[in-house]
Amino acid sequence: MKKLLAFSAVALLLAACSGQDKTNTAAASAASAPPATAGNDLLARIDNKGTITVGTEGTYAPFTYHDESGKLTGYDVEVTRAVAAKLGFTVDFKETQWDAMLAGLKAGRFDVVANQVSLTTPERQATFDKSADYSYSGPMALNRVGEKTFAGVADIKGQSAAQTLSSNYGEMAVANGAKVVPVDGMAQALTLVQQKRADLTLNDSLALLDYLKKNPQSGLQVAWRADSDGKLGAGFIVNKGNDKALAKISAAVEELRKDGTLKKLGEEFFGEDVSQK
Fold this sequence. Notes:
Elements: H1 23-32, H2 42-47, E1 51-56, E2 65-66, E3 72-73, H3 75-87, E4 90-95, H4 98-106, E5 112-117, H5 122-127, E6 128-130, E7 135-137, E8 139-144, E9 160-163, H6 168-175, E10 179-182, H7 186-194, E11 200-204, H8 205-214, E12 220-225, E13 232-239, H9 243-258, H10 261-270
Parallel strand pairs: 1-4, 1-5, 9-10
Antiparallel strand pairs: 2-3, 5-13, 6-13, 7-13, 8-11, 8-12
Helix pairs in contact: 1-4, 3-9, 3-10
């Protein structure tokens, strides 16, 4: 797709380097939360065009954040609004920290979560269900404009890769024979590549596409990206037991994919359609 986007929702999505990999803490929080209130009336409120509460971070650009005017926006937020417009319900966004989000959903404080979530762990899959994916993401590599690109990730062997050592992208670089140049995060990694102190960096495709969209004069290019088999999807997350409500949400997502709305939003936030695997 936080995002199976947003090149592993996307979500992946996929979990990424520091600031991107949120799987373990979220799963632990969800597992320790109290059970959701029985008799969830999500379907009734969708059918009656009521108000749906949606949990999201509000601090995770470009997926969910506040723009310069203070308005909550982002790819996941605008997809949520588009689904609501299709189905006729009202959205009440509830901003919360990532570590509390799935626990809040399980406890019934939210009806839905929209925050680049992929159900990648058994703990998540046992507790939650996911709609049709609205974004896909997977591993991607950037290097300097004019440098050679790679047919596969194995081709980075012998290259120097700026990576956080503890991230799964750092592990990917080591596994494929790259020489890791340690960094604290993605911003530092990109700077080292620009300064020719590293040949490339690996990270989540949606995060890197967002960077390229915002920095068209960065001097960096896509050197490699995962094919469809290496991507994860991100969708709307609900508690189990909401099959009919989730089916309506998924149908709306597919309509938005078909009518070009998801493509338009992907191009707005990432410079390309991220709703296609």
